[in-house]
Amino acid sequence: TILYSYFRSSCSWRVRIALALKGISYDVVPVNLLKDGGQQFSAEFKAMNPMQQVPALKIDGITLSQSLAIIHYLEDTRPNPRLLPQDPKKRAQVRMIADHIVSGIQPLQNLSVLKQMGEKKTEWAQNCIASGFQALEQTLQHTAGRYCVGDEVSMADLCLVPQVFNAERFKVDMAPYPTITRINKALLELEAFKVSHPSRQPDTPAELQA
């Protein structure tokens, strides 16, 4: 199993958490999104993932891209521990929160968008994340237990932690989001979230290593 990953990519981190939780061993092939004008744009990588994004996962003889598609596949083929609740209502809530982050927040502050924002990029990222977090905080007040939905780690949590990391990188004030902050803190105490952290990857620059 091979994961094409970039240490700071929040989408790659989601998949690293899933692999860690499910105890799947893998090799990392780092794809540096900044170096050489972006290694994701190489012909070799484009042949593997036409979207020229990380993560991509080679597993069971297929190559998958898109973090949630990868996580769903892992869930279908390696159901323990479960990342989607069996109860249909809770399952829908998990998917709703995951989609809120992966569709409604992360793409708006992604590298490709920020490049086009020029000097306004930090302000733009802060605004996108803050408006997304205002809605998410409200949702979580209804769904959360210890984690995003009840007391079991789910796909929603795999999306939350990397997004909070992005928020902190862009210096978003987290004070208005106590529920997000509390859940994030609880999740970061779990081993799978620690080993997959951007500060502990093979391609993490020395000055950012844990």
From TrEMBL:
GO BP term, example: glutathione metabolic process
CDD domains registered for this protein in UniProt: GST_C_Zeta, GST_N_Zeta
Repeat listed as a keyword: no
Residue span(s) of domain GST C-terminal: 87-206
UniProt-listed Gene3D superfamilies: 1.20.1050.10, Glutaredoxin
Compartment(s) where it occurs, according to its Swiss-Prot or TrEMBL record: Cytoplasm
The entry's keywords: Cytoplasm, Isomerase, Phenylalanine catabolism, Transferase, Tyrosine catabolism
Pathway: Amino-acid degradation; L-phenylalanine degradation; acetoacetate and fumarate from L-phenylalanine: step 5/6
Domain of life, per lineage: Eukaryota
The keyword Cytoplasm is annotated on this UniProt entry: yes
Source organism phylogeny: Eukaryota, Metazoa, Chordata, Craniata, Vertebrata
One Pfam family hit: GST_N_2
Residues covered by the GST N-terminal domain: 1-82
Protein name per Swiss-Prot or TrEMBL: Maleylacetoacetate isomerase
Catalytic activity, as annotated: RX + glutathione = an S-substituted glutathione + a halide anion + H(+); 4-maleylacetoacetate = 4-fumarylacetoacetate
EC number(s) reported in the record: 2.5.1.18, 5.2.1.2
Single GO MF annotation: maleylacetoacetate isomerase activity
Cofactor(s), names only, from the UniProt record: glutathione
Similarity section: Belongs to the GST superfamily. Zeta family.
Record InterPro entries: Glutathione-S-Trfase_C-like (IPR010987), Glutathione-S-Trfase_C_sf (IPR036282), Glutathione_S-Trfase (IPR040079), Glutathione_S-Trfase_N (IPR004045), GST_C (IPR004046), GST_Zeta (IPR005955), GST_Zeta_C (IPR034330), GST_Zeta_N (IPR034333)
GO terms for cellular component: mitochondrion
